[in-house]
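Predict structure. Chain length: 417.
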Amino acid sequence: MFEMVKLLAGTHLSLLAFSVLIFDIPRYSLSLLSLALFGAWRRSDRVPASNASVSVVIPTFNGGSGLGPTIASLQQQTLRPFEIIVVDDGSTDETRAVAERARALGLVDMVICHGTRCGRSAAINAAARFASGDLLLTVDADTVFEPTAVARLAAVFNDPRVGGASCNIAISNERESLWTGLQSVEYLMSISAGRSILDVVDAIACLSGACSMYRRDTFLRQGGLDVGPGEDLEYSLRLRRLGYLIRFVPEAWAETDGPTSGISLLRQRARWDRDALRIRFMTYGELSFFHRLERLPDTLQRLDFIVFDLVPTLSLPFYLVYIVLMFGTADAALFLVAIYVLLLWLSIFNIALAFVMFNRSIGLFGLGAALIFPFYQGVYLKCARFFSYSSEIILASSRRDDFVPPRVRRALFGDRI
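Prediction complete.
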């Protein structure tokens, strides 16, 4: 331990700062401390009133097992949905039977069935044309809401400048595996804390796919979601370019299932990371640090991605080579262990503060996950993100994303896939 402290004490401050930045953990420290300073984290038990009618759209492909609990949680809302529309996007499981049974019981108002899979965007766009509510809530079929979630989301649309809003998300199956336990901590840090502070400065860039709410008239006027991959981010950035506010509502809680294995988690994150890079820089040209006539919040949301995500990720291999060349192999390993110990203490502080601020419980399983969270966030996911970004830059691999049906990809990209 003394050797590690001595090595850190003799390291230039700029290298220490970049070493801490590159592994993500201090980003959450800044978010949490800022929230505590502004008092923006305090949860209000009062549910704001809204007179808006809400049409709920549940697009699903082979999601029959989670559809029932999702519908049940929507029926228990303090602001009851005006209508619930289920879109069975070519499922081969019991999805259609579950949806039709719910419709027969009066729990669902409409069931739309696609003979073949058309993709999530096409499913939502089709339902939006039949919906009649003022607001459109899109929900994944494995998402379960707290009773006040819909009311809290709808209330932010009392401000006519708001074009979209998303809720706070927790992992419902956090005890199923080590991976879901780590995701539970990650969601608390990156969504609950990270998006809360971004909402304070109006810098939310992406509405969550699990549950997002839009103005239906604006949604239809803009042509709905893009049918390519990364549709949630693309539509969120489109709304920002049109001058609408994008809100995050931390008091509106929902729970969703997370991937239970390391491989399925990597596949999910590879898709998210590739889509983020393509849409931000190739579709919307957000790589430059400043854009003429851009609002400050738009600059902040771009810089948040560039400074805290893109630059540290692409710098990782060069950083590791530099550390080895500077210290030698043995001292480089000792230096990285020292950095990890520092990050571990920061991570424990962050997690404890976040659980208190957002009123979440933590057991022995959560404490165990917290001990390896810096490795999970700063090494495992960082390396995965590096390969995802590299494959997108070199191979444009998002064009072959199997989240989008093959015939839709062929229509979008033709011979380029």
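Summary: The chain has a mean pLDDT of 87.
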